[in-house]
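Handout, page 2. Input:
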Amino acid sequence: MADILLADIGGTHSRFAIYRNSKQSPIKIYYNRDFISFTDVLSVYLKTLSQRPSSLILGGAGIIQKNTLFFSNLNWKINVQKFQKEFQFKTVLFVNDFKLQGLGVLGLKKKEIYPLSSKKADKNQPIALIGPGTGLGCCFIYNGKVLESEAGHSTLTPISPIQQQIAQILSNQFNPLSFERVLSGPGLVNLYNALIQLKNGGHPIQSTEELYRLAIQKNQNALETYQFFFEFLGIFAGNLALTLKTSGGIYLTGSILQDPFILKLFKKSKFSFYFKEKGRLKSYLETIPVFLILKPHMAFDGLKYLAKHHQN
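Output:
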């Protein structure tokens, strides 16, 4: 049976594996910053293989326009026809990266999720999946199908006075101001820099690594930044819960939230308060369970699902 190349292209990393005889090889990870284009990083990975795969299933954040694939958070693009001919793939399938994560939710085991509330999920009702990363991914899962969404680009809705002040500062830089501008890796940097501007003290940062180091050192501005991140995440999750009445649960994923140190901060945050802070519908939101997904690289579960059906 011919090999299928599985690729998960995020804003920061490119991940590859081979699907052969219903099994997946170990995942190989590359930093996108080390490559000019997707074809460059793909060429490097293919050189590590003894046998060239016949097909490619590619998951990434992006859109196809006029037979060209544009990545949302990368300055990369692919002309699909030229690409397929150059690498001699019989078939190339492009799938939204968060659709893959949604497919992965369908096969999660109990040990791979951490309940953040005591409420029980109604398995017959819609699920919302949210993943802050390089961008803000989200989708809905219902009746075994994944419904793609670009809700991460919806307009930010601050509630508290200090949230409104932070949003006002960021609106001078981003207009309109979307949830993704605060609920992502770059969003954490935006939040920190807006907060120190509001307080008129502190030095701007350039990366989430800087923010994380400051938080570990118990820097008050860094710790507050994470708390505002969780508050805005609660607002956004509550919005999605109302959009499709997600009694099947809200699932949170991504390496930001899975980090043990950040998870400790999250458990002490006001996420739950702002999740439910929806006025007359607060009592309904109190019935919706929230889960944190502990399993990394969940997109590959979706890729394997598609590869299995591709071979069949």
